[in-house]
Every structure is written in C-alpha cells, then in structure tokens.
Write a structure and sequence with these properties.
alpha/beta; Rossmann fold; 7-stranded mixed β-sheet; two-stranded antiparallel ribbon; 9 strands; 29% helix; globular
C-alpha cells in the first residue's frame, strides 16, 4: 500500500474530528501566525493540512493567499466540503511534500503540524528541508510541530520520530533562526494525552 492509499483509507474510515491529532482550533499555531505580524495578503501554506480547521480560522482572519497541501485527496475533499463556497478562495494541492515542486520563494509562512515526524528516513527529511528552503521567501517564517520526547512512538499505524525543539531546529540547520518553541499536551478525541513540541523559526534574509 502506498502512503497516499494509507491516508485515503484512513479518511474513508474516520471523520476529520475522529483522527488522533484533531483539534477544533489550532490555537498555538494561530498564536504564532499572529506573532509573525503578516499582512493579510501574505502567502501561507499549511503542509499536511488535510481536513484541519486552520484554513477556516485563517479565512476568518481575512488571509487571502492560502494553500493547503496534503498527500490525501480524501482529506482535502473533506475540507473543501466543510468550507463550501469559501473553498474557492484556497489553493489545494495533493501530493507528497518531499517530492512535489512548489512555487520558488512563493510563501511567507510555512506551517506543519504533524507531518515531519512521519519522515523516518534521513533522505526524506533532507528533501523536506530542501523544499522549505526553495519555497519560503527570504526572511520567511516556519512552524514545525512534532511529537515530543514523551509523545507516542506510533500514529495511525505508522512509526514516527520524536523530537525536542532543539532537535527539530537541528534538522534545518543554521539558515534558520529559532525564534521560540514550546510544548503542548494535546488531548485526542479518544481522551488520550500526547506531547507535541512546536519549533518556530525564521529563514535567513
């Protein structure tokens, strides 16, 4: 089974509010986007955004250049259905971030909550970092959230990596300046607690 088939099957079996990483609103991510003080015409990409509600909240904040990327067409279809006519204001991309060609220097803000920790092989992580370097504008912002050191070792039937904030930053290297980081205890829809670590950086000018 391919990765795309795995995630499509998951979204066929479960509703968007039944997956373990679901939150009604990504409050911490929104705080960091607010902290960046971006104009409402800034280009923001939500990597692995799938059926997440982040795009809804950014539309509510009048951001007008939003892109959602996910490997699962089923997840994106769920989000488009939820948004209705507002979905036309969003660019939707189906593909693997480590192999998809994104617009060069096309984004002011890169957001990823829970994709990076699925990249268990170093070559895949290197391709991810290359994609970020190519897609972000000089001085662009990036938030990557992964399972923390005390987080689960598996998610949705797949093994994952776990990171501290410094370890996340270390994957990206000196071209990225760490601005802040924090830990969040996320409660899954089933009531379990999971440790997430957020690392917020800015790419060099």
């Amino acid at each position: 089974m391919t990765e795309r088939e795995h995630w499509d099957q998951l979204y066929e079996r479960r509703g968007p509010d039944q997956v373990s990483w679901y939150r009604p609103h990504l409050e911490r991510s929104l705080e960091l986007i607010d902290q960046a003080r971006l104009p409402t015409d800034a280009a923001i990409i939500d990597v692995g955004g799938g059926a997440s509600t982040l795009v809804d909240d950014l539309l509510d904040r009048s951001y007008s250049r939003l892109t959602v990327l996910d490997i699962s067409a089923k997840a994106i279809a769920r989000a488009r259905e939820r948004l209705g006519a507002r979905a036309e204001a969003v660019t939707w991309l189906v593909g693997d971030v480590t192999g998809l060609e994104l617009p060069a220097h096309g984004f002011d803000f890169w957001h990823d909550r829970a994709v990076f920790h699925f990249l268990r092989e170093q070559p895949a992580r290197a391709r991810y970092v290359t994609a970020v370097r190519q897609a972000l504008k000089a001085g662009g912002h990036i938030v990557v959230a992964t399972f923390g050191p005390e987080g689960p070792e598996r998610c949705s039937g797949l093994d994952v990596m776990r990171y501290s904030a410094d370890e996340i930053h270390g994957q990206f290297g000196g071209a990225f300046r760490k601005l802040s980081s924090f830990t969040e205890v996320h409660q899954t829809p089933g009531g379990a607690e999971q440790e997430f670590v957020y690392c917020y950086c800015r790419m060099g000018e």
